[in-house]
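Hi everyone,

Forwarding the result from last night's run.
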Amino acid sequence: MLAPADFMRAIDNVFKDKLEAVTDFHFGEKVASVFDDMLQRSVPFYAEIQRMIAEIATDFAVEDTNVYDLGSSTGTTMLLLDQHLRPGVKFVGVDYSREMLNKCAEKLAEHHFDREHQLICGDLNEGVRIENASVVLMILTLQFVRPLYRDTLVTTILDGLHEQGCLILVEKILGEDSLFNRHFIKYYYDFKKRNGYSELEIAQKREALENVLVPYKLLENREMLLRAGFRYVDVFFKWYNFCGFVAVK
């Protein structure tokens, strides 16, 4: 059975060398080529989160409906879900990066992925069409959507879900208090150092993400989901400044 580590290829060295000027983080060809390694080394308990996502999605996915992966990147989640979900469930991957979608298509073909699926290039800031969905995934994606558009996007997802359908959301979050936030960020950078990232790499990536990744607090995310109209919202994963939510229509 496939696991996230099976998809690792090129080593992430995007920020290894000193840059003259750090520009905003972009999911282009350079990032797409090393993204699987980047996730493995940058997201705590990444393999376990993916396992939990598959476990939850299995209970909510319904035959003859769609499972959407918004921010599908290189297709890891779709490949892992394919091993668990029943036949007759169609996958729809959406990403604004054409380079990520190309990498996704390559990886699906490499692993002989034969489930009905569609890959769509689209900017979630501009909205998305959700139809006949039993499960929608946003795995470390909503944090890259401008806050101005997040409520509208979440409402669109709710409207496109069947009754009892679910949204699985994983986000980097802020601590509820600045004291905790400082500690959690320190623990996170220590985690990245243990996975081989240097102080320079951590600092340069932090600067590149500063205007691109805008996290909410845990309670702010929960309130947003409830405000949109989800009936039930719970936390299924929490590690310092990372959190997983499941919200049911």
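The domain at 4-175+209-248 is CATH 3.40.50.150 (Rossmann fold).

Cheers,
N.
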